[in-house]
Amino acid sequence: MAAVSASAGAKSDYPLGPGDAIKIQVFQNPDLTLETRVSESGAISYPLLGSVELGGLSVAQAEQRIRDALQQGGFLQNPQVSILLMQIRGNQVSVLGQVARPGRFPLETANIRLTDMLANAGGAVPGGDDIVIVTGMRDGQPFRKEVDIPAIFLHARTEDDLILQGGDSIYVHRAPVFYVYGEVQRPGAYRVERAMTVMQAIALGGGPTARGSEKRLRLHRKAESGAVVQSEPKLTDPVQTNDVLYVRESIF
Question: Name one Pfam family in it (predicted).
């Protein structure tokens, strides 16, 4: 089993979790060399010591815990313990949906944030939404939060750049769209931009044709009941997800 490639800093900061494979070595004590996996409870079974809780500890902290246990147990006077991270399995985050490289990514260091993990996945594709959904567990309870990614940078909402934990999932949904058809230059589906108005929506469709009129519009919008409601919108009205705009012919 090949060791995980990581910098010295990442090695020291990485929090061990269930499923992680490690190799423990004690200088000049080859009989204490052990390759093992962290159990689901976060423990390992180590010679002389029995069960040792390592889950949630950084690699450096785990080394110190074993060092202290060997010393306090009277087994060695000044043990020099090193832990090599062989395979990361427990502390991973899933990135799903409309990203360039969906998959599972390791938390190789502590304090990995949401934007860091999205960057690891290549970011959202052009059809991806600006708002992502983060799910996982916090304090033993299910956790779910919708995060506006542009707002983190545009409005300095750094508190929304969440610190991720092992087992978290990040989901990037398809961007919301509206539809425009009838007497427009380029009928079709388009992304709903922030604070978009009906006038801007028609402009995305290339504007009315020679026979069309921006004064003769019909809007089809699904109500909460599920019924489709028709109306004649103003050019300054906001556009919502799944709106259907129909540009009718001029009456002249």
Answer: SLBB
